[in-house]
Amino acid sequence: MLSVSCPQPSCFGYPLSIFFIIINEFCERFSYYGMRAVLVLYFKYFLQWDDNLSTAIYHTFVALCYLTPILGALIADSWLGKFKTIVSLSIVYTIGQAVMSVSSINDLTDHNQDVALYIALSMTGLILIALGTGGIKPCVSAFGGDQFEDDQEKQRTRFFSIFYLSINAGSLLSTIITPILRAQECGIHSKQRCYPLAFGVPAALMAVSLVVFIIGSGMYKKVKPQGNIMIQVSKCIGFAIKNRFRHRSKEFPKREHWLDWASEKYDKRLIAQTKAVLKVLFLYIPLPMFWALFDQQGSRWTLQATTMDGNFTVNPILIIIMVPVVDAVVYPLIKKCKINFTPLRKITVGMFLASLAFVAAALVQVQIDKTLPVFPAAGQTQIKVINIGTDGATVQFESPLQSVNVMSMESTGYMTFDTSRLQSVNIISGNKTTSEVITLPGGSRHTLAVKNSANVVAKWVSLFINNLPDTINITMGDTAFETLMSFSASNYNLFPGGRKDNIMAIINSIPCSVTSKTLGFGSAYTIVINGCTGNTLDVTYSEDISPNTVHMAWQIPQYFILTCAEVVFSVTGLEFSYSQAPSNMKAVLQAGWLLTVAVGNIIVLIVAGASKLSEQWAEYVLFAALLLAVCIIFAVMAYFYTYTDPNEIEAQFDEEEKKQVKKDEDVYEKQTEAVSRM
């Protein structure tokens, strides 16, 4: 192995350079998971995509992040080396995060007219991030391992433990902090959820990560690229297949293994190592299904949380807690019970637990569905009537449709009609009558405000209604609404749930205000401005959508079960892969492991697109059933797997090579003696 290094300064027996690498990894993981924590919400609420499209783009992005490590490994091992690869792709990564932050600035242009610009910027940013985070993923940990000498095995092992802790710490902090940043309101001309800040802080952390890594440049041991082993393995496999096809005739004797057909060109050691790798990669085939469920934490489960009451982050905290608990308590107890809990059995249990977690998610979803409003289907229209006048009113829809009586300052619930049958409406209040022609789009909800003044008047409205004779300006929290004429209404706007906001109206240059009622998570209201008494605003609330009533705490069981699944599946899977891989093939299995994550996210896209299930709980059950079936298949495969010790195999080859060298030396000596006698 060739390396370029200066004498390395050390601290407590560790190369000082690794501290720069650990800080770099912490900042990078904060940047990645922080951005990902609010990504699906950005799709849904900023770009205004529906749940299915948001989920599809999210999983496409995650899949791309786990496909690009192969590219990063090839660049590092065959061309630039690890250090230059990390620096180069980190620059790409930082630019991508910055572009994402810019793509979420609402005042950048007219949001409603130029959505295409926001989509183009965000997709560009995500592609750059995927290239960056995926490209450096296989390089950083390996580059850290390169900093140690051969006699520092103990320090190297501890480094990887600290390195893994820095990943979890970055993930934990970012998934707590970035949703809080998103909940803030910011903007120049219009206030919105602060996605620029939620994406901007991860962008800043990625820039810090890059700077810290470069600062340590003079201390690093930089191994020169020696050629990528994945390319050699691929060529060996390709030659074996080609050679076997050429000699498919029965006149050629069969060989013990199909890879033995590569022996004409490649040495026995490489062929044996490739066999060991393929043996493990074969076991990887069912594993993507686990990741198909696991990565829905950031998509479907996040969207599920938006229909619930409360606001907290639990998964990263559980990971930090469960890893040491499982290692220090659970596994020793199993060992004391004399149960042979092999790595493959642990992986099988992890898959089963993930399936169970989705059953728990389905049960929660069933309870949520009971509380959600029923929105109109295509071809249907829902109408709610609110009477803001002083007299009762009767609202008659065209016969044979229903009519309703509405008392003063009261409202009806939403009534569902076939859109094609809605032609007109008659409103009677006191001794006055008026008629309105109805031309409403299908598949939507509408609120009809009626008032008996000089005449009976009716208006389709939303959110704030000015029930005063004067023009007013309204502000709620930091959000300013358009100027409202008498008996006019504002558009709906989004506000953080679970809190109260100050409502202020400027009436004839006199400010009047009132503290709103607590706005429940997921709720929607129409607020009527009735007057001002002693600088106190008189308002009436009409509930359009009830607040979410199923608390987020009910998600804790599914997150707890899935976290346990992750601990026994992911950590064990990496440990198993490394224990079964030849020393120079660990990078191949690392790439293979990351590839299972990418394929898992692609499976989400395929299953969600093909299932056409209208109920979300049914989709959860479908994924749980698929993983359970795959779990059974994997258990059968694991039963027939034979564990090997790559070190013993390599030692045998070393011994054979020594014997061959000795044999060649003996032959050479005999030939030399024979020549000297002549």
UniProtKB/TrEMBL annotation:
It comes from the Eukaryota. SUPFAM superfamilies: MFS general substrate transporter. It is found in: Apical cell membrane; Cell membrane; Membrane. PROSITE patterns: PTR2_1, PTR2_2. One of its GO terms (molecular function) is symporter activity. The keyword Transmembrane helix applies. GO terms for cellular component: apical plasma membrane. Keywords: Cell membrane, Glycoprotein, Membrane, Peptide transport, Protein transport, Symport, Transmembrane, Transmembrane helix, Transport. The keyword Glycoprotein applies. Its main location: membrane. The chain crosses the membrane at residues 56-76, 115-136, 157-177, 197-220, 276-294, 314-334, 346-366, 587-608, 620-641. It catalyses: glycylglycyl-L-isoleucine(out) + H(+)(out) = glycylglycyl-L-isoleucine(in) + H(+)(in); L-tyrosylglycine(out) + H(+)(out) = L-tyrosylglycine(in) + H(+)(in); L-leucyl-L-leucine(out) + H(+)(out) = L-leucyl-L-leucine(in) + H(+)(in); N(alpha)-formyl-L-methionyl-L-leucyl-L-phenylalanine(out) + 2 H(+)(out) = N(alpha)-formyl-L-methionyl-L-leucyl-L-phenylalanine(in) + 2 H(+)(in). CDD domains: MFS_SLC15A1. Coiled coil: none annotated. It is a multi-pass membrane protein. One of its GO terms (biological process) is oligopeptide transport. PANTHER family: OLIGOPEPTIDE TRANSPORTER-RELATED (PTHR11654). Electrogenic proton-coupled amino-acid transporter that transports oligopeptides of 2 to 4 amino acids with a preference for dipeptides. Transports neutral and monovalently charged peptides with a proton to peptide stoichiometry of 1:1 or 2:1. Primarily responsible for the absorption of dietary di- and tripeptides from the small intestinal lumen. Mediates transepithelial transport of muramyl and N-formylated bacterial dipeptides contributing to recognition of pathogenic bacteria by the mucosal immune system. Belongs to the major facilitator superfamily. Proton-dependent oligopeptide transporter (POT/PTR) (TC 2.A.17) family. This is Solute carrier family 15 member 1. It comes from Strix occidentalis caurina (northern spotted owl). The lineage of its organism: Eukaryota, Metazoa, Chordata, Craniata, Vertebrata.
